[in-house]
Amino acid sequence: MEPKVEDISKKKIKVKRKKKTTRTIKKTLVIVESPAKAKTIEKYLGKRKYEVLASMGHLRDLPKSQFGIDVENNFTPKYINIRGKGDLIKALKKEAKKADKIYLASDPDREGEAIAWHLAYLLDVDDHEKCRIVFNEITKPAINEAVKVPRKINLNLVDAQQARRMLDRIVGYKLSPLLWRKVKKGLSAGRVQSVAVKIICDREREIKAFIPEEYWTIDLKFKKTDTTVDKQESFTAALSLIDDKKATIKVEKDAVKIEKELEKETFIIDEVKKSERRRKAPAPFTTSSLQQDAARKLGFTSRRTMMIAQQLYEGINIGKKGPVGLITYMRTDSTRVSELAQNDARKYILDNFDKKYIPEKPPIYTAKKDAQDAHEAVRPTDVFLLPAIVEDFLSKEQLKLYRLIWQRFLASQMVPAVYNTMSIVIKGGKYKARAVGSVLKFSGFTAIYEDNDKKKDKDIILPEVSIGDNVVLKKILPEQHFTEPPPRYNDASIVKTLEEKGIGRPSTYAPIIETILARGYVVRREKKFEPTELGFIVLDMLEQYFKNIVDAKFTADLENSLDKIAEGLMDKNNLLAEFYTPFEKTLEKAETEIGHIEIPEEVSDVRCEKCGRLMVVKQGRFSKFLACPGFPECRNTKPILKDTGAKCPKCGGRIVERKTKRGRTFYGCENYPNCDFVSWDMPVADKVCEKCGANLFQHRYKNGKVIFYCGNENCETRKDHPINEELNKVKVKTANKKDKTK
User: What does pTM read for this prediction?
Assistant: First the structure.
């Protein structure tokens, strides 16, 4: 029997194959400053090839416990790793060793450049390598473009940051101990902050020295009678000239005399002018103008504005789109806008308004003389991301600020608003009065944004008149006025003043304000800055011995020198030597000449319940308070309570004015915590409920309406009181308005 032949064509042969070795793909490490920014950028670059980590700001700095600058050795700084950041530094070093490339993507300013330089040192990256990437906005095109064109670390920018840091260190660490010894422990003096304190103190001295002067104005109400149509039109004109000279009325006696003479005069139209006025759109936001507008329109402090702007810049999670950077870099002094952003704005305006709202050429706005112009203006990264689209993903504050930036940018790319104006001069004997009318002809940029803090201009319509027409004087309206002192600075006006005087730069305005508040040299009352007694004492000492430190021009010149270092036109060590040598001599002189300065204490009539001493008034960070002079043996403190004159409806104690930690005023019983009565509404001492005798409270609505109600919750007339009927009507009105809005 023949052997069986196996058909090998049908047989599966097992072949041993070598196992694939999994090769680890080396990633590019990108280091930014914040986790939010890292998350947004990683989304655009992709996790497969890139790893994005955050340094959480600076990792190295001058030591807190010592001067940290070797003056004898060319002002060499001694940098140390910041306490508490050791684990983060280790983690970054570990990831850096695994990475194929390292890109340092800190913020595109001097501070960001210095952070990149310190990171390069810690991670053993050669600062001559092309390891630095910068971008003005956190969008996919901007990030991808930045990665394509990395550059070397700009050592001129690093030097400028180091020079600023060391100047501040010299002043802070040399001058502050002098203040401790001569005035009070815990004080400090700053190079830029001291100038800000001087500006606020100088304004306060102006206010205190101001003597109001009386003056009068006279408005005249005229009627034009049209006999053919039996129609009467009235209008008001202001008395402007007497014998062709400006009408200056000092006292009531003169006003009465003029009023009597005007009653005898007959009046005719002496002059009629018609013209067209164009109001240009404002430039897109810089850091300064953003802080000013946010303060005026939203009530934000500078710090709050910059904090929210940082969040919008770094990226907000927009649903399915993930993290999106909504605005460009918010620290800038430039009004420049990219061509792409301008084209997008023009397309949006064309689609949503009309062709006539678009200028022939995109507008170009001139920056101020000393602007660094390193970045674009503050604008939305995508004009098609309307505030209404992102509303559900933003907090109320984020939405308010984003809407403001979006509207301002779009308005800046629109044509001017056009007004028809009319000016009428009415003559009667030696007197002339002027009436000015203005009617909006074409809204232009005001269709989306109003560039002042008032509501949109109301049309003032004057009647059609001709030269020689007779008009009838119907009423004379004299009014007494008094000149007012210059106002105290608020967040908007102090930032504007600092910018005008060249004090600080876009990134420093908010820290300057926060520092002088924290030091107790200035307090914020009703959104305005008021210097404290301590502020005046420290300023007086600095003005006597360290004039340069509080001199606005000297400080501005230093800022210009720092700009020159950034441009490579000046050596940082030369600037430090020029500053330090005379400063050290002045310091030695002040040490020997200044005696101990006693801060006078205001003694109250309130006795300390613990030791019986009369308590003294102290200035805290937010407001004044009472403290026992027996400190440290007796540490008793209590708030200063302002009596409203009203009685507590619960226990009959006094109702006093109190403050929350954020400075908001509320009203409560003096017997707290034994009595828990509190109210946001102000009690009225001279108004009581007819039924129960309790004090009435005043409630003010946003529409300006004020109502009164009984403070006693158990009063039987509280709900049925006629005053509360009015309250309910207002509530219904407000609710209806909200429904309509929705």
Answer: 0.78
